[in-house]
Design brief:
The protein is of the alpha/beta class. 52% of the residues lie in helices and 11% in strands. The strands form 2 sheets. Strands 4-3-2-1-5-6-7-8 form an 8-stranded mixed beta sheet. Strand 1, helix 10 and strand 2 form a beta-alpha-beta unit. The radius of gyration is 41 Å and the shape is elongated.
Length: 691
């Protein structure tokens, strides 16, 4: 290792610009030969050989020049002698010939003297003008670097040998984690050396010095030991009155955390008027965020039966028809007031951070928890080129979750594997659904068949990815085998509603598309069997609500439904034959009353306990620690991922190519006016939220 690096340094030595031509040939020859030395493992010999060859070649050229000058002078001297003899013998000497010969002799003597002077000047020139000394100086510098590299390599070998021979593991175990992590960041190995001991002591002293300005500027606050005593901000991707799981469940989580005394805020998207008309049911439109907040609080009070004390903040968003969901505009973190939260819960962290371009969540909050609601990989597979889209989305989700989350909670293993993740169901159902179930169970126990006087139904968005194709295929198989299929009422609106109705009509299936409806509506109370063949769900909220209301549930046997497997009224199928058999049995039988154990599992009180336990730092199969306790290479890698994501988000072309909405990194004038914020000015400006 050190030898190869030394050879590379020697081969790249620059030639001094002031080196005379007399040095070019030998120096170049020495350079060329030094690139392929015979002593690959002994770099010092290579450098000595390089200097020796360069000096030897220079000396030979100087001696040759002096020799030539002296030879020319000797020849001129001999010619003069012969001419003098000729003058003595010749009675008529030629004055012109004698003058020419004498001039030649003097010129040769001057040439030889000049060559000798040049040679002497070259050898005795001062250091700043001597090319040989400059070359020697460069070689000395390279030799010094090689010596340092070899010494460092020998020191590393010695320290590693001592680590293998000594019991340094005990020292590491006794060292406080905070100090050990800082020491590991300072030194890339773990030796038992005085250097490490000194640096550990320095790190410990820096940790104890809380008044250090440098430490105060770079330190991330430690995560709270008990999240229920922290200030929590729950950020989600949808808001009521859109009756979707990512709007309802975060709202209920907020309410029940607030009921425990936790200081909690709910952060939801604000849509412009056009998007509200497109998304919200029953032509609901809100002129101001305040009006929508009042509507949300009124709905929540009627659903849970108590007043919850929490704040609601809005961030700008736009509805994407391509994704069928809401995407944020600008930096969401700028719409969370400073000091209002030290823990962030990101409902759908991948969705919130695909196009996030702002402050890093883990820099703003001491602990960041993501809750995975949606299996976006399954949605991607239903699109054109779905195989490649799902593959790329898998790595993008890992990228953003690792960059912005300390921990990720998966509702089921239907979600892809993610860094620092744990699997548990942290959702519950509203008390209203349990009350409906109690009423229906009392009616059924009293012999009243009117409790469940309707057949099968399904609740979900009218999208093929929600399981409608699988449902129609199962009913079509039953019709071909038995001659008829059961009747089904489907509640849900969406882009594929007409296509679903057309396919059902083509296959002569009795499926009625009745449009969107609240699952707790009175029209739904009388249905007996909830059918859900969806394979894209992570954990279907409607399934939990149906079981809470005392109904049967016929479900696909996949990871998303494992939480309901032990419920007596849940029937899981793997084949079309099992599906038909379960539906026929449920339509002919009566549901069992909900047991106390299963009833408690469905409550939001139990779900909140599971959430607090799963979201706590250090719990579960994922190693979660504050930034100061994580290994240096983990922090560096996470930071590199976040910086790369931020850098790519700076380009509008890259954002658009990745599927972002136009100019989604900025705030529009309409959104700024609706939310009462000041428009940013300049490339580094941030949104200023009023007090």
């Amino acid at each position: 290792g050190a030898g190869a690096g030394t050879l590379a340094l020697g081969a790249r030595l620059p030639r001094p610009s002031s080196l005379p031509s007399v040095l070019d040939a030998p120096a170049a020859a020495a350079m060329t030969e030094s690139k392929t030395p015979s002593h690959q493992g002994e770099p010092a010999f290579v450098l000595d050989d390089f200097v020796k060859r360069a000096a030897q070649g220079t000396s030979e050229r100087l001696e040759e020049a002096v020799r030539a000058a002296r030879t020319a002078a000797a020849r001129s001297k001999a010619a003069c002698a012969r001419h003098d003899e000729q003058r003595q013998d010749d009675s008529t000497p030629s004055t012109q010939t004698h003058t020419q010969a004498q001039a030649q002799a003097e010129g040769a003597a001057q040439q030889g003297g000049k060559a000798a002077q040049d040679a002497a000047a070259l050898e005795n020139a001062p250091g700043d003008r001597n090319p040989l000394r400059k070359l020697q100086h460069q070689v000395d510098r390279v030799r010094a670097r090689v010596d340092r590299a070899m010494a460092q390599q020998q020191e590393e070998r010695r320290l590693r040998r001592e680590a293998r021979e000594g019991g340094w593991e005990d020292d590491v175990k006794r060292t406080p984690p905070r100090v050990l992590a800082r020491a590991m960041a300072l030194l890339p190995f773990t030796p038992r050396s005085r250097s490490l001991q000194r640096r550990v002591a320095e790190a410990q002293a820096a940790d104890e010095d809380d008044a250090s300005p440098r430490r105060a500027a770079t330190r991330r606050p430690p995560p709270p030991s008990d999240l229920s005593e922290s200030k929590v901000a729950i950020v989600t991707t949808a808001s009521l009155p859109w009756m979707t799981g990512t709007a309802v469940n975060p709202l209920l989580r907020t309410a029940f955390l607030a009921r425990r005394g936790t200081k909690v805020s709910l952060v939801v998207p604000w849509l412009g008027r056009a998007d509200q008309e497109r998304v919200y049911p029953n032509a609901l439109v809100f002129e101001t965020p305040r009006a929508q907040e009042e509507w949300i609080r009124d709905w929540l009070a009627r659903r849970v039966g108590f007043e919850a004390d929490f704040n609601i903040h809005f961030y700008p968003g736009r509805y994407s028809k391509e994704y069928g969901s809401i995407l944020a505009d600008g930096d969401i973190t700028s719409f969370i007031p400073e000091g209002s939260a030290d823990v962030a819960v990101l409902e759908e962290p991948e969705h919130l951070n695909w196009y996030h371009h702002g402050e890093r969540w883990t820099n703003r909050f001491s602990h960041v928890v993501g809750v995975m609601h949606t299996n976006y990989l399954e949605y991607a597979r239903h699109e054109k080129g779905g195989r490649w889209k799902a593959l790329s989305l898998r790595y993008i989700n890992k990228w953003v979750c690792r960059s912005y989350c300390d921990k990720v909670i998966k509702l089921s293993d239907a979600v892809q594997p993610l860094p620092r993740s744990i699997t548990t169901n942290v959702h519950g159902v509203c008390p209203h659904f349990l009350a409906i179930g109690d009423t229906c169970s009392k009616l059924a126990a009293g012999g009243g068949e009117e409790a469940y006087f309707k057949g099968a139904y399904f609740v979900g968005k009218a999208l093929w990815s929600k399981g409608y194709r699988e449902l129609l295929d199962l009913m079509h198989v039953q019709r071909q085998r038995d001659g008829a299929a059961f009747e089904l009422d489907a509640f849900g609106g969406g882009e594929d509603k007409e296509a679903v109705a057309a396919l059902a009509k083509e296959r002569e299936l009795d499926v009625r598309m009745l449009g969107p409806l609240d699952h707790a509506h009175e029209r739904v109370h009388g249905y007996k069997v909830f059918v859900n063949p969806s394979e894209s769900d992570v954990l279907c909220t409607c399934t939990a609500e149906a079981l809470a209301m005392g109904k049967f549930a016929v479900l696909k046997d996949n990871p998303s439904n494992q939480f309901f497997k032990n419920f007596p009224n849940a029937y899981l199928y793997s084949t079309p034959e099992e599906f038909s058999s379960h539906v026929a049995h449920c339509l002919a039988a009566q549901p069992e009353p909900l047991q106390a154990e299963h009833r408690h599992m469905l409550t939001w009180e139990a779900a909140t306990e599971r959430f607090l336990e799963a979201a706590a730092p250090g719990h579960g199969d994922g190693r979660v620690a504050p930034d100061s306790l994580q290994p240096a290479h983990v922090r560096a890698l996470d930071g590199a991922f976040a910086k790369a994501h931020w850098a790519m988000g700076c380009s509008e072309r890259i954002r658009r190519a990745a599927g972002a909405m136009p100019n989604s990194s900025q705030l529009s004038v309409e959104q700024a006016l609706d939310l009462g914020v000041a428009l940013p000015e300049g490339p580094d400006a941030v949104v200023v939220r009023p007090e």
